[in-house]
Structures are given as C-alpha cells and as structure tokens.
Amino acid sequence: MDLTSLSLHELQRKFRSGEACPRDAIEALEARIVQVEPKTKALLHRNLENALRLADQTDVSLPLGGLPIAIKDAIHVEGDPCTCASKMLTRYKAPYDATVISRLKAAGAIPFTRTNMDEFAMGSSTENSAIQPTHNPWDLSRIPGGSSGGSAAAVAAREAFAALGSDTGGSIRQPAAFCGCVGLKPTYGRVSRYGLVAFASSLDQIGPLARSTRDCAMVLNAIAGKDPKDSTSLDLPAEDFTKDLDLGMKGLRIGIPKEYFVEGIDPQVQAAGEAAIRQCQELGAEVAEVSLPHTQYAVGVYYILATAEASANLARFDGVRYGNRASHPKNLLDHYQRSREEGFGSEVKRRIILGTYMLSSGYYDAYYLRAQKVRTLIRDDFNKAFQCVDALICPTSPDVAFRLGERTDDPLRMYLADIFTIATNLAGICGISIPGGFATVDGSRLPIGIQFLGNSLEETKLLRIANAYESASGWVSQLAPI
Ligand code: GLN
User: Fold this and answer.
1) How many angstroms is it from 297 CA to the middle of ligand 1?
2) Does the CB atom of residue 259 touch ligand 1 within 6 A?
3) Considering its fold, how many domains does the chain have in total?
4) Which residues are catalytic?
5) Confidence of residue 112 (pLDDT cuts 50, 70, 90)
6) CATH of the domain at 159
7) Cross-sheet strand order for the sheet of 162-166
8) Taking the model in full, what pTM does it have?
9) Is residue 333 part of a domain?
C-alpha cells in the first residue's frame, strides 16, 4: 500500500484502525522524497532521525496524532535551520518553536521536512529562493507558484501529506492553485504569527496547504487561537472548523466580483471559473454579481504597504544580531553594508529600497498614508459585499503555472498577477484555493485554482462551501504525474 497519496484524514483513519503506524508514514515519505526530490527540489532540509523518534512516541488518538506536516522555512522549529531561503540566514538555527509548531506538536503532529520558498516570502514563483528554484510536479519545466512553492510542490509530489505556508498577498493560495492542492489563508489574527519570520506584519498569516478542505480544517483546528506572544492574535472561543463541512451549499449566496472577471485572464482559467459558478448553482447556492470597485488599486496599495513594512522588518538583519556577517569590515558602516549586500538577493533589495522610499520624509504622505486610506476603502468594498453574500468566488490567479525563467526579468508582470489574492490580505479576510480543473498548455496538463473568499472569522462557513465544491467537482483527487 502506498501511504503517500492519502490525505491527512485518511492517514489518520489508518493509524487509528492499526493498519499503519506513524513510523510507516515517515518511512514512506522518506522513500518518496529520495525518489522525486531531485526533480522537484521542494525541500530545503529534513531530520529523519528526529521525525522517527517523534513517530515512535506519539499518541495516535490525539487530534493530529502521528501526522507528518512539512513546514515552510520561514517558521521556527526549535533546533532546525530556518533560512527563509536566504543567504542571510544560512547558518541560523531556530532557538525556539513558533506558536504554530508548539500547537501542532501538542496535537500530536510531527513537523517533518522544511520547504523551499521565495527569499523572505517575496515572490510568486519560488525562483527568488537563494538556495534553489523548485519545479512544478505537473510539469517540471514550470514554476510551482510562490512564495510557499516548496510547500505546494511537496504536497503535490506526495513528499508531504500537508504543509504549513504563509500568505502575505497570496503565497498559500497561488502555489496551491498552480500545484493542484488546497490552500487556506485564515483571517488576520486567527493564527499566531509568533515565530514566523516577518515580511509585512499587518498582512502575514500562517495557514495549511493540503490535499483536501477537510485536512485544512483539521490543521486549522490545531493552530488557531489567541497567543499572548502575538498581540494581533484574536481572543475567540475555540471553534471546530470541521463541524459544518458536510452541510452543503444549499441556500447560501455566492457573489461573483465583477471586477475579477475581466480581460487579461487566461481563457481556460476563465472557463473553469464559469464552470465552478455553475457547479455552485447546481449545488443549490444562489449566485449574484457583486462589485468590489477599488480592486484596481489593490496591487499598487499592496506593493506600497508590503514593501514599507518589509523595509522596517528586515532592518534587523544587520549582521550583528542576526544573519550573514561580513568578514574583516573596515568600519561599522562597511560592516552593515557588506553584511546586507552579500546576504540579500536582488528582489529583497528591490523591496527594501522601494519600502524605504515610501516611508521617507516628503513621500510618506503621498504614498504610505494614501495607501493606508485606500486599504480602508478596499476593506469597505468587502464589508458591503458580505452584507449580501456568504462568500465570493473567482479564480485564484489569472494564469496557470508559467515556465521557469519566463518572468524573472519582469517584476511588474509578476506583481500584476497577484490581483486576485492580495486584496484578501489588505482586507484581513479569509480565503481558500481549491483545484478547479486543468488547462492544457503546450501539451502539459496544468492545474487551475478556484478561490472562495469569506468574511473575517467566517472560516467555518468558507470551509463548508469549499468542501461542497471540492466533493462535487472531484478535481482534488487527481495526482500529479511524477
Ligand atoms: N506574490 C506576493 C509578493 O511577492 C505575495 C507574497 C506572499 O504572500 N508572501 O509579495
């Protein structure tokens, strides 16, 4: 029996019936990794011995007892490297567990393997990793999406059953879409960010990538909740996010944001979006057009605010407290300059420069402050829409996975393709990407992602809608040909 193609909840059933044990699962993953990792390059490091030790100790009756979860390399796991795929942090080891990791461990899960990413989570293709580019398991000449591209590729290539990613402007949902997985970005504040290396603190949120909506709900159950170590985490009563999964879509209202179905979308993605809308209608949902009039400003606002926050967050990597330290500096300034010059890649530098400019005196009001005001308008658009509908539907990305190298010289083109995912983060609401069919491009069959967006703190309803679509459409069960 090949365990690696099971979903988390199927694997859990096998553990509990005694048909398999956690050690079998880790060993099956390791064998699979040895076989496919040279092709995907989804992983950065792993500690097999430690994982096997945890597997032998775990109690499978715990909520995630014995289930291995891969972790994006921006999240601290005590004793493991945590490089953010940057030269800056090549030698850094996590001195403590992120709150999501201590919660996963308390639920019995086994953090196994660290996944590749765009350096400091800046990017949409995982090509900005300073260590290696990751390849899409559906077509190895293509990118897996980003920035959590290693997490998505690992799940799609069956090197992991599920993974954690982080989503600042789409970095869980877009790679999930490109690799044919399910990816959930929770509401801002739902999950503690303590121990996640910060990119843009008002936008960052950790969430799961997995092979089903149910698996995402199970992981969210374990990682959600107030954390005194993250003042932006919300103090809410515990919720079981799996409880409404099977209630279907009947009677719910799904909104189609008209600004998200415009020119410039790949025709095959557009057709899949339209098919998904029809599917929702067949499932008994009422479908209505809604408007998010400030959508056109979302990319501009995001790239002002995210870079401004990044320039502040990345100031800590000065070669003194953290990170790469230049050898034989001539003086203090030379020390800072060369430590940062050598440690950061070009996309990270571009963003630090942009963000520093946005925050500099004379430009702050014109850019940063104005972007904050437009952010409020974007949030208001969603507030209005959610007065009439339970969730929104749209494609996750206007494209499918492109070829490695195709867009590396054109950062603006790369930024513009984030149009369907970034407003979610600006508004702080939750969103999920579900496999929604395939496009055929140059003979390759490439996954298309359908995105549902839910109002703040309405994950339970969002997951219910996503699960209804997932079960009826059946796309999720397809395996990458690797
Ligand atoms: N692609 C977006 C960016 O480059 C989103 C990244 C993310 O969500 N971490 O910033």
Assistant:
1) 16
2) no
3) 1
4) 72, 147, 171
5) very high
6) 3.90.1300.10
7) 43-45, 110-115, 68-72, 162-166, 206-210, 182-185, 430-441, 444-454, 391-395, 253-257, 286-290
8) 0.97
9) no
